[in-house]
Each structure stands twice: as C-alpha cells, then as structure tokens.
Write a structure and sequence with these properties.
Layout (H helix, E strand, L loop, with lengths): L3 E5 L17 E2 L2 E2 H10 L5 E5 L3 H11 L3 E5 L7 H6 L8 E6 L7 H8 L5 E7 L8 E5 L2 E6 L6 H4 L3 E10 H7 L17 H7 L4 E5 L11 H21 L3 E2 L6 E2 L4 E3 L3 E2 L4 E3 L3 E3 L2 E2 L4 E3 L2 E3 L2 E2 L4 E2 L4 E3 L2 E9 L2 E3 L2 E9 L1 E3 L4 E2 L4 E3 L9 E3 L4 E2 L4 E3 L2 E3 L4 E2 L4 E2 L8 E2 L11 H6 L3
Parallel strand pairs: 1-4, 1-6, 4-5, 7-11, 12-15, 13-16, 14-17, 15-18, 16-19, 17-20, 18-21, 19-22, 20-23, 21-24, 22-24, 23-25, 24-26, 25-27, 26-28, 27-30, 28-31, 29-32, 30-33, 31-34, 32-35, 34-36
Antiparallel strand pairs: 2-3, 6-10, 7-10, 8-9
The protein binds uridine-diphosphate-N-acetylglucosamine and magnesium ion.
Uridine-diphosphate-N-acetylglucosamine binds next to helix 3 and strand 10.
Length: 430
C-alpha cells in the first residue's frame, strides 16, 4: 500500500515509573512497540520509528525481531513532544500514518480502515469512559476543530469525553509544511502533534475523524493501564483459540503469549502458562504447568510440570514435578519428579521417579542420549556426557557415569546389610 508509517517511540514514559523504556514493556510476551510494528508491516513497506529515550535499547529490541524499520532520533532538547518527534522525518509516500508506540491493542484491520478515507488529516476519536489523560476533542457543527490536551484543558473542556485516540493519517505535504508552524506555548512546554488539527482547520484543509473502539485504541501510560491491556489481549488470544476448537478449563486463569500456536484437539487446564513461541498440537496440558518456547505434540504434560525452552516432546507422557530443558523426547514416559536437561530420549523408554540428568559440570553443559525401550529405575543420576543404548535396564538408585551397551543391566548398589536388634542396642531399650 502506498502509505508510510511513523511510530512515535521517543518519549520518557515518566508515568510508567520504570527504568525500562515504556514502549519495551511487554503485553502477552512481546514489547508494546513490537505489536504495533507487526501491525504496521501488514500495511506498509516504509516504516519509521522515532526514538530518543534509551534509544540503544529500543533499537536493539526492534532489530532483533524486525528488518526494514528506519530509526530517527528526535531532537528532544530543542523540539520535545509528539509534534517535535515528526520534525525532519522524511518518508517515501504521499500519505503518512502516525501511530504511537504505546498502543499495543490496535489491529491492522482497524488501521486499514483509515487508509480508505481521502482527507488532508484523518484522526481517530473515541468516547472514553474515563477521559483523564487524553486530549479532548473540540467539535463544532460535527467537525473536529481542535484538540486540547489534559494539562491545558479548562474545567469545561475536561468534561468532554470524546478524546483523541492518537492515530492519524496526514497528507505528507500538509505535514511537512505545518510542523514548522507548531509552537510550545502550552502547559508541558512541548510541540504537540495535536495542534496540527487547529492549523489544518485554520488553513481550510479537510479534517475527518473516525470513531474507533476505546479498548483497542487504548494508550498505555501507567502500570495499571499495562495490566488492563494485558487482560484485554489475553482474553482475545484465548477466545481465538477456543473458537478454533481448543478446550480451556477456567480460561481466566490461563496465560498464553501472543506468538503461541495451539492446534488440533487440545485441552489446556487451569493455571497453565504458555510462554514464548510454543507449538502445541493434539495435547493435554494439565493444571499449573509452564511451557516455554517448546513444541509438544500428541502428549500429556503435568500437572505442575515445567517444559523449558527448545524442548520437543512427541507421543510422550510427562507427569507432575518433571522439568524438561532443551531436550527431545519421543514416545517417553516420565511420570514424576525428574530433571531431564540437554537430553535425547527415544521411544518406549520409561524414566523412573527421581531421575536426574546431571548435565552441568560447573563449567559446561553436556548431553545425555538415551535409546529405545530403556528402563530407568527410580532415583537414577545420569552424569553427562553419557550414552545409554537401546534395551538397557538401570537399577534404582544408580549413578551412571559410563556409557551403557545395548541390552545391559547397569547397577552400582553397595551390598545391603542387615544387623538384627541394632535398634534396641543403639537406644538401649531392653
Ligand atoms: C497523546 C496525545 C493525546 C492522545 C493520547 C492518546 C499529544 C500531545 N497528545 O497523549 O491527545 O489523547 O496520546 O493515547 O500528542 N513521544 C515521542 N516524543 C515525545 C513525546 C512522546 O516520540 O517527545 C511518543 C511516546 O513515546 C509515545 C507517544 O509519543 O509512544 C505518545 O506520547 P505520550 O506521552 O504517551 O502522549 P499522551 O500523553 O498519551
Ligand atoms: Mg500515551
């Protein structure tokens, strides 16, 4: 589409009361700014982000996930504010969609509807339940004449509940000509982008407003709003999965990151947390389990299991208090209380209760490779690097420090002693 996108992300985010730049605070696992860039990419191939505060952190975070975003450093010392942010920015196309980096809930479909309207200025407004903090819309004869910021509004203006949502489309020519006309004679001593509405009206330019959904266009300025936006995003994510056939028990207790994929016949029980880029197919994830950046297919996991990043679990049963990290398990049963890290475990293998892969020697991590149909007795330690071939039996309580050949028994128990009547001698009872 022939539109450029400019995302404002230079602000200090003072109201967040945080050392992390506001636009990097996460909603459903991903920084607010990533959500908005994702949407922008569906609409344009010319995307610009305005940065200043903690700009190295902001740029690094964006570049880790996106290519083709141009960064501009705002001259905040001389031109602070949302208007100052756009000064000197050169874009490719004749129309410019301006977005704020603190609006993670807006969708590309909603933004797309702005692009159909031909006008020098298109702005977004909504009727706010609580207008505090938003710029108030001054209307006359059904036309938006100006925007008055919260801090500049008088008592009457503060009562207006139609507010500026903060998304605009400008004609590039109008924008370039008008930014120099802004001044900072206002309560915040800043160059307000919102003052362009009055300038457009004064110059007889066409100004059109679109009524948008309050929830989706919510701007995040505080931690309370961050929590509210998280709840809204989570409800959307879970609703979408349920509509596609996933069963969720008490969905309000479940957390799922925005990039998770859950497909086929899945049951997700209460208290489950699915974090990062997980793919879960035809599986049952039981109460209070945590799954991080892993793939799970035709398997059951939990209750109270933790599957840490880079695990691939297929046709497997993982029971309670089992932790799996960076491991490939195919056709395995690990029913209780185990740590399986940096391992590969093959079909038909049974992992007894209390099995531990000792993967770390204090300096490096090592692998544990276990073949098919291995029976691992309870309380086994596998000191990595170690390889157990197919059809091996490991006796309960064994500390395995050497590779085991196909079909063998591995046992290192010391002989059991029985001393009759020892109890009575020891405690001198009778
Ligand atoms: C802004 C609007 C307000 C609107 C609201 C919608 C202005 C003056 N006010 O207020 O009318 O109702 O959004 O959510 O535009 N930023 C910069 N450089 C700056 C200052 C801010 O890039 O110098 C960026 C911020 O990083 C942020 C965005 O602009 O992503 C909006 O700034 P913010 O301070 O949140 O503006 P609001 O007070 O919410
Ligand atoms: Mg804001």
């Amino acid at each position: 589409m022939n539109i450029s996108v400019v995302i404002l992300a230079a602000g200090f985010g003072t109201r967040m009361k945080s050392t992390l730049p506001k636009v990097l605070h996460k909603i459903s696992g991903y920084p607010m700014l990533h959500h908005i860039i994702q949407n922008a990419q569906n609409l344009s191939d010319d995307i610009h982000a305005i940065v200043y505060h903690e700009k190295e952190k902001v740029i690094k975070s964006v570049e880790e996930s996106f290519k083709n975003v141009s960064f501009h450093t705002q001259d905040v010392k001389n031109h602070s504010g949302t208007g100052g942010a756009l000064m000197g920015v050169k874009v490719k196309y004749d129309r410019v969609l301006v977005l704020c980096g603190d609006m993670p809930l807006v969708t590309s479909e909603e933004l797309g509807s702005f692009l159909d309207i031909k006008s020098d200025v298109v702005l977004s407004v909504f009727k706010a339940k609580n207008p505090t903090g938003y710029g108030r819309i001054i209307e006359k004869d059904g036309q938006v004449k100006a925007i008055v910021e919260q801090k500049d509004a008088d008592e009457e203006e503060k009562k207006i509940d139609i507010v500026n949502a903060g998304v605009y489309v400008f004609d590039r020519q109008f924008l370039e000509n008008s930014l120099s006309k802004l001044n900072c004679n206002n309560a915040q001593n800043e160059y307000y982008l919102t003052d362009l509405i009055k300038i457009a009206n004064d110059e007889g330019k066409s100004v059109k407003s679109i009524l948008v959904n309050e929830q989706n266009f919510m701007g995040i300025n505080s931690k309370t709003q961050l929590a509210l936006a998280e709840k809204i995003m989570q409800d959307k994510i879970k609703q979408n999965f349920m509509d596609n056939g996933v069963i969720m028990r008490l969905p309000e207790t479940i957390y799922i990151d925005a990039k998770a994929k859950i497909e086929g016949e899945c049951v997700i029980e209460n208290g489950v947390s699915i974090e990062g880029e997980c793919v879960i197919k035809n599986s049952h994830i039981k109460t209070n389990s945590v799954i991080e950046d892993s793939e799970i297919e035709n398997s059951s996991v939990g209750p109270m299991a933790r599957i840490r990043p880079k695990s691939k679990i297929t046709n497997t049963h993982i029971g309670n208090f089992v932790e799996v990290k960076k491991s490939i398990l195919n056709g395995v049963k690990a029913g209780h209380l185990s740590y399986l890290g940096d391992s590969e475990i093959d079909e038909g293998t049974n992992v007894g209760c209390g099995t531990i892969t000792c993967n770390y020697d204090g300096v490096k991590k090592h692998k544990t490779i276990i073949g098919k149909n291995v029976f691992i007795g309870s309380d086994t330690q596998l000191v990595a690097p170690v390889k157990i071939e197919d059809d091996v039996i490991i006796a309960a309580g064994t500390c395995v420090t050497k590779d085991a050949k196909k079909g063998s028994l591995v046992i290192n128990r010391s002989p059991l002693k029985m001393v009759e009547n020892f109890y009575y001698k020891y405690f001198k009872k009778g």
